């Protein structure tokens, strides 16, 4: 179980080898980013990992490499259920790793098995990156390959999906609102947020509010 000040001490001297070792010594093995599509999990995850000197893993990328298919191809060939099963299985493999920043896919938390794994992983800190749905969609549409995002394509269901996932995102330990921020500003805010918000234990965010 994490004790207070362990996360702040991890990020206070982020970037050095000493930092990552110190974080390991304190028992924190991973930072996991969650939130809807376009929240910045992949973008900020990579930046945060570089800052910490930790490895960066992206659940979608790992699944694509493992299967030899794109995420869109998996949706087409196996349906969403097939993709969700792959997410659960890949998460179990990745959560064994140390000194890792992990970006989840936006829908991973829909699976109970994913939520259970995150809850059981007491030495990982889960951060929810939030923004209004309209801003998230806008960011996705501005990215190359927007048409390849299967969940984005199903525009009619987007708001209900987003609403259904919110309670799951809110099970994270920390939350960062990114609306109106650049990725660089979000990264600084992410570091500052974690530093300023010591947790008495690794209980979900909702337990502290
Ligand atoms: N404040 C911000 N934080 C993170 N990403 C942002 C922000 N503002 C704009 N963006 C852009 O939004 C997109 C987020 O995409 P991505 O990192 O793939 O999100 P996700 O992995 O959560 O779907 C990127 O193109 C990024 O540059
Ligand atoms: O919201 C979703 O259900 C999905 C989000 C995507 O990841 P990002 O949130 O990183 O875009 C990817 O896992 C897949 O297209 C499904
Ligand atoms: Mg992503």
From TrEMBL:
InterPro entries: P-loop_NTPase, Shikimate/glucono_kinase, Shikimate_kinase/TSH1, Shikimate_kinase_CS. One of its GO terms (biological process) is chorismate biosynthetic process. Mg(2+) binds at residue 42. Keywords: Amino-acid biosynthesis, Aromatic amino acid biosynthesis, ATP-binding, Cytoplasm, Kinase, Magnesium, Metal-binding, Nucleotide-binding, Transferase. One of its GO terms (molecular function) is shikimate kinase activity. ATP binds at residues 38-43, 149. Binds 1 Mg(2+) ion per subunit. It catalyses: shikimate + ATP = 3-phosphoshikimate + ADP + H(+). It holds the Pfam family SKI. One of its GO terms (cellular component) is cytosol. Substrate binds at residues 60, 84, 106, 165. Its EC number is 2.7.1.71. Gene3D superfamilies: P-loop containing nucleotide triphosphate hydrolases (3.40.50.300). It is found in: Cytoplasm. Its cofactor is Mg(2+). It comes from the Bacteria. Monomer. Catalyzes the specific phosphorylation of the 3-hydroxyl group of shikimic acid using ATP as a cosubstrate. Belongs to the shikimate kinase family. This is Shikimate kinase. It comes from Acidobacterium capsulatum (strain ATCC 51196 / DSM 11244 / BCRC 80197 / JCM 7670 / NBRC 15755 / NCIMB 13165 / 161). The gene is aroK.
């Amino acid at each position: 179980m994490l004790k207070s000040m362990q996360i702040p001490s991890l990020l206070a001297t982020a970037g050095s080898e000493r930092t990552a070792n110190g974080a390991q010594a304190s028992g924190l093995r991973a930072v996991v980013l969650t939130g809807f599509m376009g929240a910045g999990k992949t973008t900020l995850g990579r930046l945060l990992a570089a800052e910490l000197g930790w490895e960066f893993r992206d659940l979608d990328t790992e699944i694509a490499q493992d299967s030899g298919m794109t995420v869109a191809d998996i949706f087409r060939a196996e349906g969403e259920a097939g993709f969700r099963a792959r997410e659960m299985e890949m998460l179990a493999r990745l959560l064994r790793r140390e000194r890792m920043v992990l970006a989840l896919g936006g829908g991973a938390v829909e699976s109970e098995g994913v939520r259970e794994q995150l809850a059981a992983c007491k030495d990982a800190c889960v951060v929810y990156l939030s923004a209004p749905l309209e801003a998230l969609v806008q960011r996705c549409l501005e990215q190359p390959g927007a048409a390849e995002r299967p969940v984005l394509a199903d525009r009619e269901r987007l708001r209900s999906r987003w609403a259904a996932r919110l309670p799951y995102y809110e099970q994270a330990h920390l939350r960062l609102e990114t609306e109106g921020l650049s990725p660089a500003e979000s990264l600084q805010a992410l570091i500052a947020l974690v530093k300023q918000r010591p947790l008495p234990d690794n209980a979900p965010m909702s337990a502290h509010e």
